[in-house]
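Sequence in, structure out.
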Amino acid sequence: MSKHTQGFSLVELMVAVLISIVILAGVGTAFLSQRQVKISADTQSQLQNSENAISAILGPAIRGAGFAGCESLGPQSASLIKNPSAKLYNFQSAVFGYDANNTAGSGSFATASDNAANDITAGHWTPVLDSTLTAPVGGWVERGSDVLIVMGAIPGALPLPVTAFSTSSTTLTVQANAVNQFTNVIPAVAAGSIGALSDCGKAHVFQITSVSGATLFFAPNVGSPGNTATIPAAFTYKAGAQFIPMVQTVFFVGKGTGTQSSLYKAIMINGAWAPKQELVPGIENMQILYGVGASGNNTKWVPAGSVTDWTVVNAIQLAFLVEGGPSANAAGLSQTDGGVLAGCSGWALLRTCVTVPSDGQLRHVYTMTVTIRNAQL
């Protein structure tokens, strides 16, 4: 007896293939969906990490602005440093800034081009951006982003007790060997660096012209830019006053070393900015408002170009446009920072509308408000 093997009919085979295709399509869709969810989750985590880094870096720097030993920078302090026009080396206030006047002459709209070339036109900021920030090859700052300068004691430095002070010889001596604490601090106490002398009732900021052991000299008309004069005899400091080294730090958004714009900082050392440091990648724009008012009470929030007296700045609002990575939603995260701008079809950063490319990158507006602890009360 012969045996016949029965196979699948053509119809059955086609049905099986169709079912397989449906199953594979479902698996593929689920895989792509899960992959997109993971990408979005990773990108949002990246955004959060960037925002945490901004807070950890800028928060302490702004809160500590104006610290000059037991006194604060303000109306009762005086700077001996020559400063005929530029704000650099002007330690009369705790902070200073430049407002990007942006595009079309409106001052209210800016365009964020990811990792755009830096700008060398100082007039694109109000006040005019200091030439030291446009002079480096290609400039340092991207157009449309504000710039913040913070003045205060070197982070981590402690006030040193003064054992002797002489107005006539323009010298002060700190406690023996105490100056050695600055050996590993940059900028170290040396000729050309900046220091402050205070006694809790007044403060004077000066440029150190030479150092001999624990004795610091601050003679007038020596070095660059140098001091305009010595401390007047009426402001004689007694033993027990405090000395602390001072520094200026600039924060700005510039072209990054990778594929994204970045938040940078640089510190002023002996008349020149030290090499800039890339802090946080993925920062496309920074906008700043300053809370001003007498007796420590904010009466209004204004951009840098509208601040007429920097000694009455009590707090700072900052907004950052932070870019993460690819998003399932080409429009990016919906953002609300409390800023409502008529006619703004982009992202509202405080009082500035920032338009961004439709590149499918996930973005978020991060805002923070920081009180200057050493503002005058």
